[in-house]
Design goal:
460 residues, alpha+beta, five-stranded mixed β-sheet, five-stranded antiparallel β-sheet, 12 helices
């Protein structure tokens, strides 16, 4: 789940219960806030002055924790992306209260009405954020993109930048962004297709009213959002390649959905009324989906939930770290304000470019981060799932006693898993003698928002 928008505030009590159940942090300890306030006042050291470069940021309009700023120039047939990433490492000292708390959290946790940030706001939405209100420290990566969309790391430096504008997805125009922005994104997308990548971003989910009932719907991503993501993707791929070549680093890896998962997904597609040819692979079919269409958007969410999940893995000699959705060796480096691991990948890549050994404390962290990030990802995913379960229960309230068409997606000793054909709801029901792909009629018995659960009874 990317996020869940709840303009009518129908989920407030349920979200409060989720916070309590999963111990979502509320604020920061006083010692961490004090350390962050002191770090925010720290004078900047000698850096490469890039304040005359026309950097801009592009994010949701409400975002203030800005990890990346960019500018693009032509270099012959290539495009050269100058990608500034918030220099979180400048503000955080290994073992200080900020660092200890960040390791405890691992990632920013997002809920529909608020978030539990990785770092205190004085840093994440202030001194470390690349806001257009003054000079900011950043690590600028220079990423060269060929005509074929292959990204390579040309250099990196600790810099001082000044963002010219805080652009927003819903209002940005072609005149606001660098001249090569559209072409850069086009090349990255073409290269994804050539690799066989199926890197689909699910749409935002939205809870709203419909004829007195609540519905869970999807907000498609904007073109500018996808184009902006291409900049981050190219940078992450270039950094991952540099780390792999240097024999050190931390990578994001993910296996492809196994045969059983793909089998279930075919039934899910059928449940949504989608036509997925039997002789077409999941990767190929996924690339043809249009998230502006509700059924296809729901299927993208199902694909995301079907795999074993992505994980972090340090460099291992003789092993090529592979991310199936990216169809490439991949890393996370571009969101250090929101993910702990990114701070260390940035420092690792900077050492590689400068031709110096990776500092011992960074190298040690690379071996410990997979476990820390696995715990953080598990917490985030659990909370995401709880929010979706809550939203499904809220959406189904008032429909008790109604019947729905469903398709069996899986059958196991714990119950038959079904997907409703008209709503983005998954559930279990007791059914005997059924096979995946079978059609059922089910009646909603109960929608329990307190337990975040919907209960169905098979009626046909």
């Amino acid at each position: 789940m990317r996020s869940l928008v709840d303009d009518d505030h129908v989920l407030d009590s349920g979200l409060a219960a989720i916070r309590t159940q999963y111990k979502v942090p509320q604020g920061f300890p006083a010692s961490v806030e004090a350390a962050a306030a002191e770090a925010a006042r720290r004078p900047l050291d000698a850096r490469v002055d890039r304040t005359d470069w026309p950097f801009v940021t592009l994010d949701p309009s409400t975002s203030t924790d800005l990890d990346q700023a960019f500018t693009i120039e032509s270099a012959g047939d290539d495009l050269l992306l100058h990608y500034a990433i918030a220099d979180v490492g400048w503000f955080v000292t290994p073992g200080d209260p900020i660092d200890v708390e960040a390791w405890r959290r691992g990632t920013t946790l997002y809920l529909p009405d608020n978030k539990a940030s990785l770092y205190p706001r004085v840093l994440s939405e202030g001194a470390a954020s690349l806001l257009p209100d003054g000079q900011r420290p950043a690590v600028v990566f220079h990423v060269r993109l060929s005509c074929e969309g292959v990204a390579t790391l040309d250099g990196a430096e600790r810099s001082l930048i000044r963002s010219r504008a805080k652009l927003a997805y819903d209002t940005v125009t072609a005149a606001d962004v660098p001249a090569g922005f559209d072409e850069f994104a086009r090349r990255v997308t073409a290269a994804e297709s050539a690799r066989g990548a199926s890197n689909l971003e699910p749409p935002e989910q939205h809870v709203g009213r419909d004829d007195g009932h609540y519905r869970l719907t999807f907000r498609p991503r904007s073109v500018s959002e996808d184009q902006n993501a291409a900049l981050s993707l190219a940078t992450n791929l270039a950094i991952a390649s540099a780390m792999q070549d240097s024999g050190v680093g931390l990578f994001r890896v993910m296996a492809a959905p196994d045969e059983r998962a793909v089998h279930r997904l075919r039934h899910t597609a059928r449940a949504f009324g989608l036509t997925w040819p039997e002789d077409e692979s999941l990767e190929s079919y996924s690339r043809r989906l249009d998230c502006s269409r509700p059924a296809e958007a729901a299927f993208v969410m199902a694909v995301r939930r079907s795999g074993g999940g992505a994980e972090y893995r340090p460099f291992e000699a003789g092993v090529v770290p592979w991310h199936a959705a990216m169809a490439a060796t991949y890393a996370h480096a571009t969101a250090p304000l929101r993910r702990l691991a990114d701070r260390y990948v940035v420092e690792t890549a900077l050492s590689i470019v400068q031709g110096v050994p990776v500092p011992d404390d960074i190298g040690d962290a690379l071996t410990r981060l997979p476990e820390a990030m696995a715990a953080a990802d598990h917490a985030a995913n659990t909370i995401d799932r709880a929010v979706i379960d809550l939203a499904e229960a809220v959406m189904m309230q008032g429909h008790e006693g109604e019947t729905f068409d469903a398709v069996v997606t899986d059958d196991d000793p714990e119950g038959t898993r079904i997907q409703l054909t008209t709503l983005a709801v998954k559930a279990k029901v007791q059914a005997h003698g059924v096979q995946p792909g079978d059609s059922l009629r089910v009646k909603l018995v109960k929608a329990d928002t307190d337990k975040r659960r919907v209960e169905f009874l098979r009626v046909g």
